[in-house]
């Protein structure tokens, strides 16, 4: 899918690669202040030319290690140290950029594939109602 709720698991898989091909996957997103966050990791594709992050452990040299289907999401790091990811407006999604590069190393080699995925914070149909009563300010989210 091209869109999912922020707290839902996301299955990441790449098809159409060469058998046992070495690739680098990179995710990136910009927060609401324009700060860039990225994660990358190295994989070796299976014999069938498919890479499923739920079944394929990463190779050394990336942002995390082991078998981590959502590692490319939780391992996002700021471009500059000590930056925090900012999200003020839950009505707009984070847009996650996913890229697949040939081989390993820096800088990345040839771009093989890319996709965008929106991580939304509100399910479709949810209404956002501002609440102001005296000194109390809040937001009420009502399901459809």
Explain how this protein is built.
- The protein is mostly beta strands.
- The chain has one domain: Immunoglobulin-like (Sandwich), CATH 2.60.40.
- It is built from one helix and ten strands.
- The strands form three sheets. A six-stranded mixed sheet has the order 1-8-7-3-4-6.
- The model has no long low-confidence stretch (mean pLDDT 93).
- It comes from Nyctibius grandis (Great potoo).
- InterPro entries: Thio_Ohase/aa_AcTrfase, Thio_Ohase/BAAT_N.
Q: Between the first and last Cα atoms, what is the distance in angstroms?
A: 22 Å
The SSE order reads: EEEEEHEEEEE
CATH topology: Immunoglobulin-like
* Residue share in helix: under 10%
For the sheet with most strands, the description reads: 6 strands, mixed
Number of domains: 1
Class from secondary-structure proportions: mainly beta
Mean pLDDT: 93
CATH architecture: Sandwich
Q: Strand-residue fraction?
A: 35-45%
Number of helices: 1
Across the major sheet, the strand order is 1-8-7-3-4-6
Uncertain segments are none
GO biological process, one term: acyl-CoA metabolic process
Family: Belongs to the C/M/P thioester hydrolase family.
GO molecular function, one term: fatty acyl-CoA hydrolase activity
Protein name: ACOT5 thioesterase
Features:
mainly beta, Immunoglobulin-like, 10 strands, 144 residues
Layout of strands and helices, then pairs:
Layout: E1 3-5, E2 13-14, E3 22-30, E4 36-44, E5 51-52, H1 71-74, E6 77-78, E7 94-102, E8 111-120, E9 127-133, E10 136-142
